[in-house]
Design brief:
Blueprint (H helix, E strand, L loop, with lengths): L10 H52 L3 E6 L4 E4 L5 E3 L5 E5 L2 E2 L4 E6 L9 E5 L6 E5 L6 E4 L4
Antiparallel strand pairs: 1-2, 1-6, 2-3, 4-7, 5-6, 7-8, 8-9
InterPro entries: N_methyl_site, Pilin-like
Pfam family, one: N_methyl
Protein name: General secretion pathway protein H
């Protein structure tokens, strides 16, 4: 049986294949990291919407105004007088129009017993990702996503 040295791979061919595999792995890793961050932003947006809906429901049920507090120092959102809290992701920025102040660093979204609200608009954003904007209707207190213009 004869051994022919021309049938195997050269060291250079193997190095090129390993470099291609490493580059593909890096691209996958970057993409998975971005999708995890996107998912985190989407989950937080859904939790904040759920918290606002719960505050509206409690306000109507208890026949008293209810407030969703957004604390910039604690990085938490909660319903005043209610135990449920959600954490704001570290890189998440929250901007609001028509949002009141409950304390020095606590912003407030108001809901009233007749189902109405303060008419606030919230924008949640992480740099380099899609932002989520929600408007809380002044008369009905219902939440609706604001689509980006342009």
């Amino acid at each position: 049986m004869r051994f022919n040295s021309n049938t195997g791979f050269t060291l250079i061919e193997m190095l090129i294949v390993m470099i291609i595999i490493a580059m593909a792995g890096t691209l996958v890793f970057v993409r998975v990291g971005k999708s995890t961050s996107d998912r985190q932003a989407k989950v937080f947006a859904q939790e904040l919407i759920s918290l606002c809906k719960e505050a509206r429901r409690l306000s109507v049920e208890r026949a008293e105004p209810t407030t969703v507090n957004i604390s910039s120092s604690d990085r938490r959102c909660s319903i005043k007088g209610y135990k449920k809290m959600i954490d704001i992701p570290a890189e998440m920025a929250i901007e609001g129009k028509g949002v009141g102040m409950a304390d020095d660093d606590v912003y407030a979204v108001y809901f009233y017993p007749d189902g109405s609200s303060g008419g606030e608009e919230l924008t949640l954003s992480i740099p380099g990702q899609e932002s989520y904007s929600f408007r809380i209707d002044l008369l009905t207190g219902l939440l609706a996503r604001v689509e980006e213009e342009g």
